[in-house]
Amino acid sequence: MGLKGFVEGGIASIVAGCSTHPLDLIKVRMQLQGEASAPNPAIRPALAFPTSAAHPHHHVHLSPPPRVGPVSVGVRIIQQDGVKALFSGVSATILRQTLYSTTRMGLYDILKKKWTDPNTKNMPLMMKITAGLVAGGIGAAVGNPADVAMVRMQADGRLPLAQRRNYKSVVDAISQMAKNEGVTSLWRGSSLTVNRAMLVTASQLASYDEFKETILEKHWMKDGLGTHVTASFAAGFVAAVASNPVDVIKTRVMNMKVEPGMAPPYNGALDCALKTIRAEGPMALYKGFIPTISRQGPFTIVLFVTLEQVRKLLKDF
């Protein structure tokens, strides 16, 4: 029974991840907006000091560039690189869902069955949240290399041609990172990935179960597609609000380019958060929120609707 939960969750997660990948790519590009407003992308506004002696031809502008909406970002990607560019890094998404989401969905299912009261058949909300935190943290640690590769492949198109990494696939990305930056680079930002995954899993899975149970107990709807869609969209909104700030910092830390012999742009998650807020204001932590909820909503709907259907198909196994 334990293995079945992993299979069901894995299938649903891969379907949901692939179908909403373009929205995730747009979200990543928007989260990186305003990060490098100087000609040298290694210089952040919070680190910008007069450097006319060292770089006489560089002029650092402290005002961030105008922010572009999700539709404009999507249109620009298509104009520059074609429709296929919206699926940049999809191989990394498949690997990430296979490792991260399969693990978290399977573990959550095991903990849910173990902690559900056999008499009432109910599980208290706090226990659901705890199960989500545990499952999300373990799943993120397993899937971090694929997550780093996915962020880099999605962000590559925003760089000048000379600076692009041009990874051919997720395998190429992981092997190049291990070769050029060391194996530890595959777990860059892992603390952020774990924190975000704990927030997402706890808010998404726990709230879906809670919303679904409430709808059925109040007899607002029957147990069917309408209930699944309503509960999953509400769960997606909760997950987006809870995770967006950590997601922005995670994206920036994972995407930073560390030049040999140079200090890294960020010295960790807290440093990245402080520099982002100082340079762009606190609302910068909610950059990409519209594409996040635009992606989190459909992703959660596809995830749970697919999961419910897969459960029906595999109920006899």
Automatic annotation (TrEMBL):
Membrane topology: Multi-pass membrane protein
Keyword Transcription: no
InterPro entries: MCP (IPR002067), MCP_dom_sf (IPR023395), MCP_transmembrane (IPR018108), Mito_Metabolite_Transporter (IPR050391)
A single MF term (Gene Ontology): dicarboxylic acid transmembrane transporter activity
Intracellular or extracellular location(s): Mitochondrion inner membrane
Start-end of each Solcar repeat: 4-114, 123-214, 223-313
GO biological process: mitochondrial transport
Primary localization class, coarse: mitochondrion
The keyword Oxidoreductase is annotated on this UniProt entry: no
Keyword annotations of the record: Membrane, Mitochondrion, Repeat, Stress response, Transmembrane, Transmembrane helix, Transport
Gene Ontology CC: mitochondrial inner membrane
Family: Belongs to the mitochondrial carrier (TC 2.A.29) family.
Protein name stated in the entry: Mitochondrial uncoupling 5-like
Organism: Olea europaea subsp. europaea
